[in-house]
Amino acid sequence: MQSSKIWKTIRLCLAAGLMATTSVAAFAAEPLKVAFVYLGPVGDGGWTQQHDMARKKLEAALGSAIKTTYVENVPETADSERVFRQLAADGNKLIFATSFGYMESLQKVAKLFPDVKFEHVNGFKTAPNISVYEPRFEEGFYLIGVVAGQMTKSNTLGFIGSFPIPSVMRNVDSMTLGALSVNPKVKMKPIWVNTWYDPGKERQAADTLIAQGADAVAQNTDSPASIQAAQEKGTYAFSIDADMSSFGKKAQLTGSTEDWSGYYIAETKKVLDGSWTGNRHTRWGIKEGMVVMAPLNPDIPPAAVKIFEDKKAAIVAGTLNPFAGPIKDSTGKEMVAANAAMSDATFNSLNWYVEGVEGSVPK
Amino acid sequence: MNPLIPMIASTVLAATPLIYAALGETVVERSGVLNLGIEGMMLIGAVAGFAATRSSGSDAVGFLAAAAAGVALSLIFGFLTLNLQTNQVATGLALTLFGIGLSAFVGHNLAGLPVARLAPITIPGLTAIPVIGDLLFHYDIMVYLSVALFIGVQWFLTKSRAGLTLRAIGESPGVAHAIGKPVLTTRYLAVMFGGATAGIAGAYLSLVQTPMWVEGMSAGKGWIALALVVFGTWKPARVVIGAYLFGGVTQFQLFAQGFGLPIPTEFLSMLPYAATVVVLVIICRDPKTILLNQPASLGHSFHSAA
To answer: Do A211 and B97 touch (CB under 8 A)?
Structure first.
């Protein structure tokens, strides 16, 4: 960590130095400077890689009108505040903060730089110059459940969860609901590893779930370890953030990935034409192309593919809401009434398992 | 299948890299040198092993490259602490930070690439035995080599003349020097041995446990190996038992969750660390245990002129 931080500082200093020498000359037609702050390395094969792919697409789409930079490996600590301040001072006018944990740093820095526009992923605190964007992960996980429910032979699904926070609980629940919609006998076993990233532990969790009978295991931790485990044991797995089929061609059935480029291009255009505003909360799903299903495994029978495609089309058309009632929790209590949708308050603070999930929610 | 068998198999898988790293560090510390750079050497070993296996297709080449990379990094440590007599704690910490950064830098283009996993060996006749075959004869070669390493280190430290010299140097380098023992050479060899085993431990992560390279994939295992050396009071047998215990507790928490035991997951995640702290407290409760077992010159530089 430390030395990557040093590299970053060197890079920032170089950038600052370059700018000081060039800013006078290039005042007239200066491109809009857009910066990206990443949690991991751009080669992480998942979350950060997807953001950086979108950054490249943004550059390709808007060409010389913009100039992008990025800083990788920025921890979710007070360090991130320094990085944001530096980027803003360097003349970046639009800054994308691509991890939840930057929220407090962003609030502080945004006050100091009122003319810089900030975009924050998955957060819930906005400001006049901070807008928030979030993918509808639950749509992806609902469809993962639809595939898992049809492909499981043991009727036992698994989920390797990072932390039992609402945005992850939604994935466990929507995957279970998706599976139950095609296979009422399905049971879901979640295991919480209390880390976002620990390949060894994720691997152990996957081995454990497989040993306990789960033959289709999804995850929302960051490494492809569970896909490797499934490939070796001949069971099924699902990728997260990026397509991970290179780690298990037979094992990966599909996956929930993100394509941020549509949003990044739209927001940058808004800044360019002056129509950008703060205090917005944008949630995009499959319809808008922010959530993209990884390619389907050719081993999935055509009938199952058809059901998957129909459900996907229904989600896009707006006729299928993963969290439409009736929904019971794992104790049998009705949480969402029939013909009702889940309220925003419930959605944002979801902390219970739906019926079909085994065990009790970690408190 | 009995659910206990995969649990035990996973425990062995989790414990093996700890055994390599901790046994190496045991030898290093018995010679009176404290190398806190295990985490960094493991990561360098992980990336070197992964890269070598990917380009050569051979796991043996991968593990050898990992050991060589670990040795190379440990030589930096050796030169700084033994020749230039820098502070061992600070140098070891620097080595870890250096290893984390260097491995990330070198491995930047290796992230996201697959490599075939080192397959378990099958022993004709033995692997097929029900239960016992699954339990004892179904691991990759590195697991069996870790047992051999334990026997070798145990023999070396307690039965060999060179091991006696090494321990004497760890207890009192001045006296050992006075009777003509090569303090610096012995310490150099010990540090290199620790580098090689830490490198192999890292390669075990990137070639066997999760066959891929990702930045920081050791996720703190180097520090656990360091704790295990104290945990085992610098005795190889106790170090190995500690590694299996630690692996077992880590594995147990995942199994307990899968079986739906109503124990908070945060508590379960804490267990391996809590167990380590408890054992360390028990060991330290009697100052004599530490005093009698800790190499007396651990962490001190040696001036041959003195």
So the answer is: no
Q: What is the pTM of this model?
A: 0.80
Indicate whether A240 and A117 sit together in one domain. no
CB contact (8 A) between residue B210 and residue A191: no
Q: Domain residues for A71? A: 28-136+260-284
DSSP-derived letter for residue A297 is P
Q: Which amino acid is at A148?
A: A
- Which residue has better confidence, A189 or A8? A189
Structure token pair of residue A145: 């459940």
Do A142 and A132 reside in the same domain of the chain? no
- Write out residues 247-306 of B within 8 Å (CB-CB) of A: 250-251, 254-255, 257-260, 262, 264-266, 269
Question: What mean pLDDT do residues B15-20 have?
Answer: 95
Interface contact flag, B258 A2, Cβ < 8 Å? no
Selection from B160, B139, B187, B189 nearest residue B11 by Cα: B139
CATH number of residue A297's parent domain = 3.40.50.2300
As a dihedral over the C-alpha atoms of residue B229, residue B235, residue B239, residue B241, rounded to 10 degrees, the angle is: -150
Composition of chain B by helix, strand, coil, percent to 5: 75, 0, 25
Tell me the mean pLDDT in the region A218-228: 89
Question: Nearest residue on chain B to A156, judged by CA atoms?
Answer: B258
Q: B-contacting residues of A 285-324, CB under 8 Å? A: none
B124 close contact with A: CB closer than 8 A: no
Task: Say yes or no: A115 and A244 in one domain.
Answer: no
Cα–Cα distance, B138 to B145 (Å, whole number): 14
Contact B1 A211 (CB under 8 A): yes
Residue A229: closest C-alpha in chain B? B210
A116 with A201, same domain? no
Q: Residue A27: pLDDT above 50? A: no
- Higher-confidence residue: B255 or A211? A211
Give dist(CA B199, CA B206) in Å, integer. 11
Taking the CA atoms of residue A25, residue A27, residue A28 and residue A31 in that order, the dihedral angle to the nearest 10 degrees is 110
Same domain, A115 and A50: yes
**Reported ipTM:** 0.74
Torsion of CA B202, B207, B212, B213, to 10 degrees: 30
Whole-angstrom Cα Rg for chain A: 21
Give the Cα separation of B258 and A208 in Å (integer). Answer: 7
Mutate which of B212, B217, B246, B263 to test chain A, going by most A C-beta atoms within 10 A? B212
Considering only CB atoms, A360 lies closest to which of B104, B215, B262, namely B262
A212 and A226 together in one domain? yes
How is chain B split into domains, by residue range? 4-293
On whether any CB of chain A is under 8 Å from the CB of B186, the answer is no
| Chain B residues 229-258 with CB within 8 Å of chain A | 250-251, 254-255, 257-258
Looking at the complex, report in whole angstroms how far the Cα of residue A128 sits from the nearest Cα belonging to chain B. Answer: 37
Statement to judge: residues A150 and A276 lie in one domain: no
Q: Do A199 and B210 touch (CB under 8 A)?
A: yes
Distance from CA of A150 to the nearest CA of B (A): 22
The CATH T-level fold of domain B4-293 is: ABC transporter involved in vitamin B12 uptake, BtuC (1.10.3470)
Helix (H) or strand (E) holding A40: none
Q: How many folded domains does chain A comprise?
A: 2
